[in-house]
């Protein structure tokens, strides 16, 4: 580990030890261990001297005796698709420090004792801002996009009800439907691996003919997780309205990285992922809906205890009362101003994505599996004709490629993969994108693969 990274963590951890001394002291009486406090201050000064000089000896032991330091984002260019847009902002990391205690969001919780009603910190305001951000009428935070799918499916889907999904749908959509007792019916892809409005309408007609039932729900990803191709969600929204079927827009790879207008799309529900696309810790996500469906999805409990007659009428059933407590929610709120701002720079993110793919395609034998030019920062590439040719003769097989990337400070590819694999440029600076492209071409040339620099 780079010594400056090591010393940065060492200083942060030493400050946490001082923080614990303050926590252990009686209010208004000063520190119980003044000598220990002063000694820790001197230690921190020494660590900062090492940090400034880039010298010193690594001294951090395992956190809690078992956990190592995660320095991936400090030391490497990380191209892992599910991590790219979930990198925390500095504000979010500060929120983790300040609100790390379990129920920290509940310090000032008052009646009606519900998360989205808390005004201090401004959680209630945040819920309203989320809905406005997506141009929807109501929003809730949930423990990941999957819990958003689950909340909608359990509210609308009855046993044996058909639900329309994409042929590239995420497994959590399947699980949400299965948990509700429904049955998925997949819309086929066209020759470009796209889900179209016409294909969705045809599938609805086929399902009605087969089962005699109109599907209870349509769930379609804007950009799927396998190829990150863009699907015709606006057209599908119109089809859903024609058949009077509720439409869930899966924005796991869009909410928080690009502009999303739910009403323009024609969505009845929007589900987003905090930890995948909103610079938030896991597990976190968002579920938004319109006034038409809010009372259904956010229904409150009507149940009453048979002995005590207790009832908790303000609690929302699908949310199990409250959802994201503590630092997870606080970090999401802290990142939100940056998240809103960055969605306005989506065109620049696309230019970065296409620059990298263009440079990769200059390596003879490489191909892009996703639609091209790219419409997303996540891409699936096929290097069967390039890096996999090297892997077949290399003693490390496909791991040679991981080794070469790691030597250059690049991580996040699927270890050992040299055929079809995914990467994301989201959030990387132009400098890092160019460095990544240069590195791929350098590795190719090292192993005598032809690079056609003037072809594109």
From TrEMBL:
Q: What class of enzyme is it?
A: transferase
Keywords, ordered alphabetically: Protein biosynthesis, Pyridoxal phosphate, Transferase
Required cofactor names: pyridoxal 5'-phosphate
Q: Transferase: is it a keyword of this entry?
A: yes
Matches recorded under InterPro entries: Aminotrans_V_dom (IPR000192), PyrdxlP-dep_Trfase (IPR015424), PyrdxlP-dep_Trfase_major (IPR015421), PyrdxlP-dep_Trfase_small (IPR015422), Sep_Cys-tRNA_synth_arc (IPR013375)
Q: Which reaction does it catalyse?
A: O-phospho-L-seryl-tRNA(Cys) + hydrogen sulfide + H(+) = L-cysteinyl-tRNA(Cys) + phosphate
The Aminotransferase class V domain, residue ranges: 125-306
Give the multimer and partner information.
Homodimer. Interacts with SepRS.
Sum up the protein's function in the record's words. Answer: Converts O-phospho-L-seryl-tRNA(Cys) (Sep-tRNA(Cys)) to L-cysteinyl-tRNA(Cys) (Cys-tRNA(Cys)).
Query: What is the protein's name according to its record?
Result: O-phospho-L-seryl-tRNA:Cys-tRNA synthase
Q: Which organism is it from?
A: Methanolobus sediminis
């Amino acid at each position: 580990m780079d010594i400056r990274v090591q010393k940065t963590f060492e200083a942060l951890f030493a400050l946490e030890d001082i923080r614990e001394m303050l926590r252990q002291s009686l209010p208004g009486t000063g520190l119980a261990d003044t000598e220990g406090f002063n000694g820790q201050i001197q230690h921190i000064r020494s660590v900062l001297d090492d940090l400034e000089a880039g010298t010193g000896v690594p001294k951090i032991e395992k956190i809690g005796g078992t956990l190592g330091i995660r320095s991936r984002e400090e030391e490497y260019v990380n191209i892992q698709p599910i991590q790219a847009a979930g990198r925390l902002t500095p504000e979010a990391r500060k929120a983790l420090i300040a609100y790390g205690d379990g129920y920290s969001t509940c310090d000032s919780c008052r009646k009606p004792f519900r998360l989205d009603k808390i005004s201090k910190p401004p959680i209630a305001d945040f819920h309203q801002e989320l809905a406005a951000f997506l141009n929807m009428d109501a929003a809730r935070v949930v423990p990941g996009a999957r819990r958003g799918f689950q909340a909608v499916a359990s509210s609308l889907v009855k046993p044996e009800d058909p639900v329309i999904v994409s042929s590239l749908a995420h497994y959590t959509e399947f699980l949400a439907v299965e948990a509700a007792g429904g049955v998925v019916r997949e819309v086929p892809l066209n020759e470009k691996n796209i889900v179209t409005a016409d294909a969705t309408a045809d599938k609805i007609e086929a399902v009605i003919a087969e089962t005699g039932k109109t599907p209870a729900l349509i769930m379609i990803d804007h950009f799927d997780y396998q190829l990150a191709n863009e699907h015709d969600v606006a057209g599908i929204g119109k089809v859903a309205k024609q058949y009077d079927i509720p439409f869930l827009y899966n924005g796991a790879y869009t909410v928080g990285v690009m502009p999303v207008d739910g009403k323009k799309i024609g969505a009845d529900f929007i589900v987003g992922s905090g930890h995948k696309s909103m610079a938030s810790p896991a597990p976190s996500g968002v579920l938004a809906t319109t006034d038409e469906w809010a009372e259904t999805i956010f229904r409150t409990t009507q149940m009453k205890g048979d002995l005590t007659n207790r009832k908790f009428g303000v609690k929302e059933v699908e949310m199990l009362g409250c959802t994201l407590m503590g630092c997870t929610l606080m970090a999401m709120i802290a990142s939100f101003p940056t998240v809103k701002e960055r969605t306005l720079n989506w065109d620049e993110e696309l230019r970065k994505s296409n620059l990298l793919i263009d440079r990769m395609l200059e390596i003879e034998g490489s191909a892009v599996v996703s639609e091209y030019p790219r419409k997303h920062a996540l891409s699936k590439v096929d290097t069967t004709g390039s890096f996999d040719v090297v892997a077949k003769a290399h003693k490390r097989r496909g791991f040679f490629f991981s080794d070469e990337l790691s030597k250059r400070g690049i991580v996040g590819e699927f270890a050992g993969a040299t055929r079809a694999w995914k990467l994301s440029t989201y959030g990387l600076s132009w400098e890092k994108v160019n460095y990544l492209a240069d590195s791929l071409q350098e590795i190719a040339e090292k192993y005598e693969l032809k690079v056609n620099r003037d072809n594109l």
